[in-house]
Sequence to fold (103 residues):
Amino acid sequence: MNSEDKQQRTPSGERRTVERLVAAWLAETERHDSAAAREARTGWERGSLSDRAAEDLATWVTARVTDTAFNEDEGPWVGADVRITPSDKDTVHDWLRAQGHAV
Fold:
């Protein structure tokens, strides 16, 4: 674990990571399913995601991990508006669990 990972695992660092990734997830969801995005955004703003939204976020962050340690020849390449590391994914999953969601 490097110093950036340690900083990110502080409560404020975790919250920043979650906020950054939830914003990206909501923006992407809005482009594909505005009703689901509206429901998720309402829950997020009230401080409580629905089980469906939490499951969607957990799946999304897992699928969008962009720091895979593969090179271009090995794949997979994930194009995304935001960079998501395996540590970021773990942070979001940990946060969801702390909120009472099964991940």
